[in-house]
Design goal:
Blueprint lengths: L1 H19 L26 H14 L7 H16 L3 E10 L5 E11 L6 E7 L21 H20 L5 E7 L15 H8 L8 E6 L8 E3 L1 H6 L1 H13 L6 E5 L6 H7 L5 E5 L25 H20 L3
Parallel strand pairs: 3-4, 3-5, 5-8, 6-7
Antiparallel strand pairs: 1-2, 2-4
Helix pairs in contact: 2-4, 2-9, 4-9, 5-8, 7-9
């Protein structure tokens, strides 16, 4: 027993010496603690504020390129974004429409923390369709007010911008309001999204790491199916956003089912700028029409807008931005 006690004592001393011995020159030192990232709380998205921004756009009238309503809306959007603390770039360009019309257009780029290399892109189009050409519209002269198709995405992003101005996370955010998206010919997909095509070829540096496009995100009982090009080019972003939406209690909006591929602004941002970008867009499941019934009709007015849908989109987008900044997404 005496010998066993001595052996155990010697073993304990040896172990203590080994623990306290200095590292050899070849041994890697312990990694320093990670620098804590900004973990600001996710702000509460104000759905009433977003709705008011949608309403103001509709009050200007249809925002068809080259019209007074288009010019007035542009001035209002720039003033709002500047008031919300963004660095605003007016990216003017001339585009030729499919019918030969020269479109005097402007992409409005609002940048938060422009000095940061790590950036997220948030986008929506702010122009409206000049023709009520849906097969569900009996009156070809109907006025398309674009409350959902255009104004809803912009309204959500204006409220996001307001929140970013109040509390800017530790990540760069580019809010891009794209022009000349809806002046296209159905038989020629490249005639759509002219602003996105121009932006993708003339993008300010540094380039965002990934992007989220909002299109038709305000209607009552909207369903955001997984759009085909989003899944093809930005599957990881789709997964993050749809999982987050479900976790936050908005799973009835973020439906984990395929909804077909749509040639929208994000298609050109993916294929020209090579920024993985998803499209949150209202797509109809088990329907003869892939888009909601008010799309490209005179019914696309404030009556179709639901504040709860605006919140379901805006709150998730804010959570993506703040959690990505904190490294917890």
């Amino acid at each position: 027993m005496h010998r066993l006690l001595i052996f155990l004592l010697l073993l304990s001393v040896a172990a203590c010496r080994n623990d306290s011995a200095p590292l050899s020159e070849d041994a890697a030192p312990a990694a320093p603690p990670a620098t804590p990232r900004d973990a600001k709380p996710v702000p509460k998205f104000d759905r009433d504020s977003a709705y008011a921004y949608v309403e103001q756009q509709v009050n200007f009238g249809p925002r068809v390129v080259n019209t007074d309503a288009h010019r007035q809306t542009k001035q209002w959007l720039v003033e709002k974004l500047e008031a919300f603390g963004a660095e605003v770039i007016e990216q003017d360009f001339e585009a030729r429409a499919f019918d030969g019309t020269n479109l005097s257009s402007t992409n409005i780029i609002a940048r938060y923390a422009p000095e940061l290399e790590d950036r997220i892109l948030l986008a929506a189009h702010w122009d409206t369709r000049p023709f009520a050409d849906s097969k569900l519209e009996d009156d070809p002269d109907a006025i398309v007010n674009g409350a959902d198709d255009g104004a809803s995405g912009v309204g959500v992003l204006l409220e996001v911008a307001r929140q970013l101005g109040l509390s800017t996370p530790d990540i760069g955010v580019d809010i891009v309001l794209l022009d000349a998206e809806d002046y296209g010919q159905p038989s020629n997909t490249n005639s759509y999204a002219l602003g996105a095509q121009y932006y993708s070829k003339n993008m300010p540096s540094p380039k965002p790491r990934f992007g989220i496009l909002l299109d038709m995100v305000g209607a009552r009982d909207a369903t955001f199916l997984v759009e085909g090009y989003s899944e093809k080019y930005a599957k990881d972003v789709v997964r993050k956003v749809w999982q987050l939406g479900d976790q936050m209690g908005y799973g009835n909006y973020y439906v984990n089912a395929r909804g077909g591929a749509i040639t929208d602004d994000h298609y050109f941002i993916n294929t020209i700028a090579n920024i993985p970008t998803i499209d949150i867009i209202n797509l109809q499941e088990n329907s003869d029409h892939r888009f909601p019934a008010h799309w490209h009709t005179g019914d696309d007015n404030l009556d179709v807008i639901d504040k709860r849908t605006l919140r379901a989109v805006g709150q998730v987008v804010l959570a993506v931005v703040f959690r990505e900044a904190a490294g917890t997404l």
